[in-house]
């Protein structure tokens, strides 16, 4: 399976009632999370997002943010993560430098030509979950993450589906040893590579919580 999100969902078909994520507002199970992701994916496709489109994501870490990221990658688009706590000029630069088809932001962040995440989540509730498979190759681009900018402005680093599939297996499971018996807690933010792996991909790949 070449799409990292479809792979994660397939690996967890047998435990839909197990909690996968917890945030300040509560918890969500693997089954509930897949449905939420697929509904947001339906919203994206209805609003013209197709394979290889870039979506800038300027959101704080919570369950809906992970669902937006997952929906983006699920439909074959590229999730371009932006630090929502950065300086405004840097947020604007990173959001639009990648020439996105869509910018998704927190309502409290002032960005022109962007859509509030709350609008997307609310409108997605009435949609049928998206099940149309996107034909992706493991070498297709899935993410763009920004470097910290220690040598000047940060640089957008491209990462494909294979990066996340193999790192989840080799590092998360086989080296660190994350398993379905574990509860994973991390303070690293999702716009960092380590946050994306440790908070999201490694636990889901291992069917952890």
Characterise the protein shown here.
- By secondary structure, this protein is an alpha/beta fold.
- The chain is built from seven helices and eight strands.
- The protein has helices at 4-11, 30-46, 63-74, 88-97, 117-124, 161-175, 193-206, and strands at 19-23, 26-29, 54-58, 78-81, 102-105, 115-116, 141-146, 156-160.
- A six-stranded mixed β-sheet has the order 6-5-3-4-7-8, with helices on both faces. The protein has a two-stranded antiparallel ribbon with strand order 1-2.
- Strand 3 (54-58), helix 3 and strand 4 (78-81) form a beta-alpha-beta unit.
- Helix 2 (30-46) packs across helix 3, helix 2 (30-46) crosses helix 5 (117-124) and helix 6 crosses helix 7 (193-206).
- The protein starts with a helix and ends with a helix.
- The relative contact order is 0.16.
- The model has no long low-confidence stretch (mean pLDDT 94).
């Amino acid at each position: 399976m070449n799409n990292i999100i479809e792979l994660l969902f397939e690996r967890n078909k047998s435990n839909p009632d197990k909690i996968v994520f917890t945030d300040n507002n509560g918890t969500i199970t693997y089954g509930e999370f897949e449905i939420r992701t697929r509904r947001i994916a339906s919203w994206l496709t209805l609003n013209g997002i197709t394979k290889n489109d870039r979506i800038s994501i300027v959101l704080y870490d919570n369950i809906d943010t992970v669902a937006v990221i997952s929906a983006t990658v699920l439909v074959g688009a590229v999730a371009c993560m932006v630090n929502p706590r950065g300086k405004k000029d840097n947020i604007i630069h990173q959001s639009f430098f990648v020439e996105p088809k869509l910018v998704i932001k927190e309502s409290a962040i002032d960005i022109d030509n962007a859509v509030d995440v709350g609008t997307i989540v609310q409108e997605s509730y009435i949609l049928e979950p998206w099940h149309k498979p996107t034909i992706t190759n493991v070498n297709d681009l899935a993410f763009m993450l920004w470097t910290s900018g220690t040598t000047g402005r940060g640089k957008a680093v491209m990462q494909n589906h294979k990066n996340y599939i193999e790192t989840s297996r080799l590092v998360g499971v086989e080296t660190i040893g994350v398993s379905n018996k574990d509860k994973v807690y991390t303070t690293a933010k999702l716009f960092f590579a380590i946050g994306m792996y440790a908070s999201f991909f490694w636990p889901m790949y291992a069917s952890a919580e």
